[in-house]
Write a structure and sequence with these properties.
single chain; alpha/beta; Rossmann fold; OB fold (Dihydrolipoamide Acetyltransferase, E2P); five-stranded parallel β-sheet; five-stranded antiparallel β-sheet; 16 strands; elongated
Length: 275
């Protein structure tokens, strides 16, 4: 069985905590590690239990849920799902990077959606952690040696495979040939880029600009200053707060569409790629 998701429930109403507990116990991949009745005890419980996600009420005596999470360092911040009877805090909640915002009484379908969002976010967070460790390992192995850029160029496929081009990426002393059609997305991490293709991650050194210039814009578009997406892998688009959207790729990975690249939204809609 895969590692279970550690959940902390925070609400000043015992009945509300009990209701969340019952719902969460129905999910096999969830482990409730604690409860808290106000913001101050919630902070103590977060530091003690290290939950992956907190289901957090907002209006509580002494300290609101928003005030509580604002006191946590970013590097130790768990995911947060707000559960409240008031909709007036929605904008503040999403500005605080909430995964979801549930209004009491919570609908069963909305609750299931919130859990799915939590699972997706944790999966992405784990992928980013693994990527950063791999990038650091590459940097440590290379040290300060004068290495050339890892992008050897765009090369044609074998004649038997058709005309679809591929990226040629140096991996140690070898060159990996990565078909463009297999690439899901590309993101940057410091001086390195991570090419995610067919379940594999290829690390290369270079700039997003140089790679963007080398790729066909009809196939790849930049949707964030640090992210390029294969348009053919975009299945749908999920609206977020303040006019923002998340692109849902084949396989379920979510990528934020930056406001700076909102013109890409029109391209997606006109092309009929997303819904």
């Amino acid at each position: 069985m895969s590692e279970r998701i550690r959940v902390l429930i925070v609400d000043d109403e015992a009945l509300a905590r009990r209701g969340l507990m019952i719902r969460l116990q129905g999910a096999e991949d969830i482990e409730v590690v604690g409860e808290a009745a106000n913001g101050r005890t919630a902070l103590e419980a977060i530091r003690r239990t290290h939950p992956d996600v907190v289901f957090l009420d907002i209006e509580m005596p002494g300290m609101t849920g928003l005030d509580g999470i604002s006191q946590l360092p970013t590097e130790t911040m768990p995911l947060v799902v707000f559960v409240t009877a008031f909709d007036r805090y929605a904008i503040q909640a999403f500005e605080a990077r909430a995964v979801d915002y549930l209004l009491k009484p919570v609908d069963e379908e909305r609750f299931a959606d919130a859990l799915d969002h939590v699972r997706q976010q944790l999966q992405q967070r784990k992928a980013v952690d693994q990527r950063d460790r791999l990038v650091q390992l590459m940097a440590d192995l290379r040290g300060s040696a004068d290495w050339p850029d890892d992008l050897a160029g765009i090369v044609p496929d074998d004649a038997t495979a058709g005309p679809v081009p591929a990226l040629a990426i140096r991996q140690g002393r070898e060159i990996a040939r990565v078909p463009l059609a297999s690439i899901d997305w590309i993101d940057s991490a410091g001086d390195y880029m991570c090419v995610h293709a067919a379940g594999q991650t290829y690390i290369l050194r270079g700039t997003m600009k140089s790679l963007e210039d080398a790729l066909d814009p009809a196939m790849f578009q930049r949707v964030h200053r640090s992210t390029i997406v294969n348009l053919g892998r975009v299945e749908r688009m999920r609206p977020h707060m303040n006019g923002e959207f998340f692109l849902i790729l084949a396989g379920g990975h979510e990528i934020k569409l930056s406001r700076t690249y909102r013109d890409k939204l029109d391209h997606f809609l006109r092309a009929g790629r997303v819904h």
